[in-house]
Design a protein that fits this description.
Layout: H1 2-8, H2 14-36, H3 41-62, H4 71-98, H5 107-121, H6 126-149, H7 159-183, H8 196-233, H9 243-260, E1 264-271, H10 274-281, H11 283-300, E2 306-311, E3 314-320, H12 324-345, E4 352-358, H13 366-382, E5 388-390, H14 391-398
Parallel strand pairs: 4-5
Antiparallel strand pairs: 1-3, 1-4, 2-3
Length: 399
């Protein structure tokens, strides 16, 4: 009975473990597009990276079925190295983009080109090709680790540390294989030899494949969540904050100004004769006018200031650390820019009426400040448009 149980036990050799990993990777390559749906650039690179790695491992296993050292072996093995290296380069680029880094690192691409070239040229030397391939694949994995390790420019989940740890482990065993193959060939005769480093590599590679899939899906989910947040806070046409998001952030900035006792100004503006623009120039011209004003406001504000579209043709600017004189100077700069650029950018006249209001006391709420700025803006319209009035000046006149 004991002998029967021993005979029924599953024997996991290197080829079985690597075959299982390859099946998993090919399954990922097929399933990812269906699971992720419509994707953007980083997701496309990740998907292509998985496809190329899966193809590379299929070819690498197929190379064991041809005559060892033959031209067919050289061609299939070289293509396998090219697929694996290119896949890793694409994964590094994808994770860089998912982490908010737009400057592309071209070194992984260069390594992906050099690796198969050197491998194919030096294929006849077993120690060279093993050391060369495993050394450069270790370098490729290091680029993926660097892409995930470095501080992201956007919020990402803690999943990245699991991927880093698994890739670091795979780097160790890959480099170990390269050193043994290059310098201690008698201790590491073939890729599928029952050597401890091959078992370690196969087991860790299986774990890394699963964790890579998780990382790709979670990185894609993080980006989708950021996009949903962006869509929930930004005006779809102009790209500035929508009214709800502007009010929320402005209330926070107002509390900060009270705590540290620095001034805050609000400028409300409303485009003059906007209906006439839509009627005479078309709604596309009206949209261009709104986008032009939004770009001009965003270019003029300082870091920490807030620009929002309140609806229709109304915009609101919160200026932190700005007294009354600074708010008026901002308005004058905007008007000077419109006088210089509007005909060039739009091809028709455009002006606005504005109202300025300051925080008067620690008890002042953002809604009250906006109301005063709004009243000043409507007074500006009543007085002939194309001007900005100050709520304080109006209050003094009324007194």
């Amino acid at each position: 009975m004991r002998a029967d149980r021993d005979n029924q036990a599953v024997h996991l050799d290197i080829a079985t473990l690597l075959f299982a990993m390859t099946v998993c990777m090919v399954t990922m390559a097929v399933a990812l597009p269906a699971v992720m749906g419509e994707v953007n650039e980083p997701a496309r690179r990740a998907q292509a990276g998985v496809v190329l790695q899966g193809l590379g491992w299929v070819l690498l296993l197929m190379s064991g079925l041809v005559d060892r050292g033959s031209m067919t072996d050289r061609a299939v093995s070289t293509l396998a190295m090219a697929g694996i290296a290119a896949g890793l380069a694409l994964n590094a680029a994808a994770f860089d983009l998912w982490c908010g880094r737009v400057r592309e690192n071209r070194v992984p691409v260069l390594v992906a080109i050099v690796l198969p070239l050197g491998y194919g040229l030096g294929f006849s030397s077993y120690p060279f090709r093993v050391g060369w391939a495993n050394g450069l694949l270790t370098l490729q994995m290091a680029f993926v680790v660097a892409a995930v390790w470095r501080k992201p420019a956007v919020p990402v989940g803690k999943w990245r540390w699991l991927l880093v740890l698994s890739l670091l482990a795979q780097m160790v065993v890959t480099l170990w294989r390269g050193v043994l193959g290059a310098f201690f060939t008698e201790s590491y005769p073939t890729f599928l030899s029952p050597h401890p480093v091959n078992y370690a590599f196969a087991i860790i590679a299986n774990a890394t494949t699963v964790l890579s899939l998780m990382a790709i899906l979670l990185a894609h989910r993080d980006e989708a969540a950021r996009e949903l947040e962006r869509l929930a806070t930004l005006d779809g046409l102009t790209g500035v904050l929508n009214r709800r998001a502007w009010m929320t952030r402005a209330s926070t900035e107002l509390s900060v100004s009270v705590r540290y006792m620095h001034p805050v100004a609000v400028l409300m503006i409303d485009l003059d004769h906007f209906k006439h623009i839509n009627d005479s120039q078309g709604h596309d011209a009206g949209d261009r006018a709104l986008m032009f004003i939004a770009r001009a406001l965003q270019a003029a504000v300082r870091p920490g200031d807030l620009v929002g579209r309140f609806g229709g043709e109304e915009f609101c600017v919160l200026m932190t650390h700005a007294d009354n004189a600074a708010a008026k100077a901002f308005d004058l700069r905007m008007r000077a820019y419109l006088a210089e650029a509007v005909d060039r950018e739009l091809g028709f006249a455009l002006s606005y009426s504005g109202g300025i209001a300051m925080r008067n006391s620690a008890e002042d709420r953002i809604e009250a400040i906006i109301k005063r700025a709004d009243e000043a803006m409507y007074n500006a319209k009543a007085q002939g448009r194309a001007r900005t009035l100050d709520a304080r000046d109006l209050r003094l006149q009324a007194a």
